[in-house]
Structures are given as C-alpha cells and as structure tokens.
C-alpha cells in the first residue's frame, strides 16, 4: 500500500522491508518484529522546517527537542507505514548536525527487543555499535546494514517520549535556533 508521504520522503515501506530482509539474512527469521519508528534525516535546516510542516499534515507531533546538538521531531502518523504485516506508527525527523554535511533521506529503523545484552550475545559475529547500551533513559545498540541502520531499544519511542515529557527531560529547541524571528 502506498503512503501519502512517499512522494516527499521516499518509498518508506520498501525501505523498512529492505532493512528487515537484510537483518533476517544476518540474524535468521524471527517473529514479526516490533518496528517502533523510522527516521528521515534532513540535509538542511530549511528542508527540516519544510518537512515539519508536511509531517504535521500526516501525523501528530509527539515532541520536538534537542538531541545530539540538533532538533529532532517525532510524529505519530495518522496512517502507519506498513510492510508485510509490520506496522510502523511513528517517524522521527532529524535536523542536520551543525558543521556536518548530511545527505537527505531515510536513515534508520528502530526495533523494540526484550534484552539488548542477550541480542548482542546471541549474535557475536555482528558488529553492533554498543556505546549506548548502558544509557539510563533509553539504551540502544545499532547495526549498520547495506541499506541503512537498524537500532534496537527496550521500549517504544512513544513511551520514552511520554516519560521525558512528564519528567521535564526534553531539551527545548532554543528560540533563536532557526535564525532571527
């Protein structure tokens, strides 16, 4: 099924499908994975601002905050991205990091798993990025694949966002971040 954002962001379901196919080839078949969200990285701030407006037409903004030195906005889509029984409810829109060149496009998907340590231990030959495995709020591990990155978390992003909003942990985007008003 085609998604209304495909013309703006690129074919999202095939992106999800390709990453899941590559992941399955490395890790073997498993039950239907819980794909929590996918991420689109904007190349420029004007593109980020334009896409925020477009995503607002197709979803509900859950939060926008500063993460890793740049704004990231997360939306719950009115129409989830679907691929072979997998439903992806949310999309993250990442602004470019200051001082870095970024190519615009779909960048990664994130899956919820019961244990990061067990996942890594079960696949010792895979080059997981484990630098955030002990993060107190939202630990994760990542795996680069030919078509993009897959990240693994313990909880859905919407739960993490709810907790961050309730505890005041969201770092607001500075008023002047996008330039003078």
Could you list some keywords that capture this structure?
single chain; 181 residues; alpha/beta; seven-stranded mixed beta sheet; 5 helices; 29% helix
Describe the structure.
The protein has about 180 residues and is α/β, with parallel strands linked by helices. About 30% of the residues lie in helices and about 35% in strands. The protein has five helices and seven strands. The longest helix is centred in the first third of the chain and has 16 residues. The model has no long low-confidence stretch (mean pLDDT about 95).
Uncertain runs:
none
Coarse shape:
globular
Radius of gyration: 16 Å
Query: Major β-sheet, in short?
Result: 7 strands, mixed
Give the class from helix and strand content and strand pairing.
alpha/beta
Per DSSP E runs of 2 or more residues, the count of β-strands stands at: 7
| Number of alpha- plus pi-helical segments | 5
List the helices and strands and how they pair.
Elements: H1 6-9, H2 12-27, E1 34-41, H3 45-58, E2 59-67, E3 70-83, E4 86-94, E5 105-112, H4 116-122, E6 140-145, E7 148-153, H5 157-167
Parallel strand pairs: 1-4, 5-7
Antiparallel strand pairs: 1-5, 2-3, 3-4, 6-7
Brief summary of the model shown:
This protein has 181 residues and is α/β, with parallel strands linked by helices. It is built from five helices and seven strands.
């Amino acid at each position: 099924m085609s998604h209304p954002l495909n013309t703006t962001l690129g074919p999202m379901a095939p992106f999800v499908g390709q990453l899941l196919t590559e992941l399955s080839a490395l890790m073997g078949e498993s039950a239907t994975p819980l794909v929590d969200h996918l991420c689109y990285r904007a190349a420029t701030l004007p593109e980020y601002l334009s896409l925020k407006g477009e995503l607002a037409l197709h979803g509900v903004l859950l939060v926008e905050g500063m993460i890793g030195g740049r704004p990231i906005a997360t939306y719950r889509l009115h129409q989830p991205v679907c691929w072979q029984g997998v439903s992806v409810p949310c999309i993250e829109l990442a602004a470019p990091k200051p001082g870095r060149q970024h190519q615009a496009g779909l960048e990664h998907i994130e899956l919820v798993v019961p244990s990061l340590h067990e996942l890594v231990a079960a696949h010792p030959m895979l080059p997981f990025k484990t630098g955030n495995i002990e993060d107190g709020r939202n630990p994760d591990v990542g795996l680069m694949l030919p078509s993009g990155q897959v990240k693994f978390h313990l909880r859905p992003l919407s739960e993490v966002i709810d907790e961050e909003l309730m505890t005041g942990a969201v770092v607001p985007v500075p008023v002047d971040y996008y330039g003078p008003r």
